[in-house]
Amino acid sequence: MKVLIETSARHVHLSREALDVLFGRGYGLKVKRFLSQPGQFVSEDRVEIVGARGSIKNVSVLGPPRGSTQVELSLTDARKIGIDAVIRESGDLSGSPGCKIVGPIGIYDLKEGVIAAKRHIHMAPQDARKIGTDSGEIVSVKINSSERSTIFEDTVVRVSNKFSLACHIDTDESNAAGIKGEIFGEIIV
Ligand SMILES: [Zn+2]
């Protein structure tokens, strides 16, 4: 099955509590552009992520707010600012490293929640049935690019009727596969 490959740049998801501290009580994120997954958007709002050895400015805040604050960096980003990142699925934050998040009006001390997102495929139940896979299963994705064709193993399937079919990788993975512009991969079950 063909799947759209989307590269996720570094970003944060903020809890209501973190939003209040960083941007002000009751602040509403300003929608810049909607993403492929229904309701999810990139906001115009930015924060700075501070680790033990440096910081990264201008990190996008994605909306809407979530139950837990989560910072998604590439391993390259994390190393640069001195965070010993772990590869985790979104939401699996227990025991992950923390950081400081600097916003326009405040600083939020995040105890845990910095991850390098485990690559994954969002799909609807009918797509999963078609290729005989299910939520939580591990598949591979073959990407043919002009110079760095790559097979990504260890790609987790996430199924929900709220999802549209897309494979999410980070900027390290995208660079490793030499991806430029819109590209599709092949799911290998
Ligand atoms: Zn995703």
Descriptive overview:
The chain is mainly β. The protein folds into two domains: 9-117, no CATH class; 120-188, Beta Barrel (Barwin-like endoglucanases), CATH 2.40.40. Helix content is 14%, strand content 46%. The protein contains four helices and 15 strands. It has helices at residues 16-23, 75-80, 125-131, 171-176, and strands at residues 2-8, 11-15, 31-34, 41-50, 55-66, 70-72, 86-88, 99-102, 107-110, 114-117, 120-123, 138-143, 150-159, 166-170, 183-188. The strands form two sheets. Strands 2, 3, 4, 5, 6, 7, 8, 9 and 10 form a nine-stranded mixed β-sheet that branches. Strands 1-14-11-13-12-15 form a six-stranded mixed barrel. A hairpin with a 4-residue loop joins strand 4 (41-50) and strand 5 (55-66).
Question: Topology of this structure?
Answer:
Layout: E1 2-8, E2 11-15, H1 16-23, E3 31-34, E4 41-50, E5 55-66, E6 70-72, H2 75-80, E7 86-88, E8 99-102, E9 107-110, E10 114-117, E11 120-123, H3 125-131, E12 138-143, E13 150-159, E14 166-170, H4 171-176, E15 183-188
Parallel strand pairs: 1-14, 2-5, 6-10, 7-10, 11-13
Antiparallel strand pairs: 1-15, 2-6, 3-4, 4-5, 4-8, 8-9, 11-14, 12-13, 12-15
Bound molecules: zinc ion (ZN).
